[in-house]
Predict the structure.
Amino acid sequence: MQEKFDPLVAEWLSFVKNPNFNLVEKCLKFAQIIEYPDLDIEKYIQKITIIGKSLKESISDVKNPTYLISMLNEHLFENLGYSGDDEDYYNPKNNFLNKVIDEKSGLPITISILYVEIAKFIGLELKIIGFPSHILVKYNEEMILDPFNDGILLDIDDLQDILDENFDGGLEFKPEFLDTVNHEQILIRMARNLKNSYIQSFVYDKALRCTNMALSVEPNAAEDIRDKGILEERLLNSNIALEYLNKYLEINPNAEDVDFILELIRSIKTKN
């Protein structure tokens, strides 16, 4: 069975690869392609500009980064009421920057993208770091911030606590967890987050589109190849499912879930 060409995935890939668009524009395009076809990207860039300019007007000429960060936190989290969404974490809307701007809550990744963008208005160059399971932001190696939790400053113990919570104590902190990530890595992570949100909601067709978006940027990612196989099986596309599940086992023959994948392959072949 031949895979169908998806023009939306092609449009997404060309946007991701285009250096003329910044991260915010790419995130809004992501939302427009997947869920909000009528989204006015320029309108949301204007909303961010209004937030940024109102922050800039509220601060003195002090350029101390600690002062600037405290003012950024006060403006975004106390005055405007932005926060991480603990209540409904897996709601797909938390992955879309337009909804985060409007509803003032989101995931670590979407809140961090907004946080870093607003910081630019006061001359603060913050970087997004690809911390496992929980995107964070840094000013330098000593100033690690968590925009999901009101921009609090984190130390090594706090970072290990985040890992313990998300990996049941199975992952030790490493300095490379604080490495910065580029736009492509951020966008792939957004696509994977959204894929997981859609799977939680049993919206398999949209979960598959997100998987295809991630694979269009990183075609050999084992996790996405596996998930594409599983999702194709759930959507009753047996031949494509088998192709990707077998490919996953070729790439990752010692995977922890190898027994599950072999059983899935057997069940697909039995049905056919």
Q: What stands out?
A: Residues 7-178 form one domain. The chain has two domains: 7-178, 220-271. Residues 90 and 197 are 5 Å apart (CA to CA). The beta strands are 83-84, 105-106, 127-129, 136-140, 143-146, 152-154.
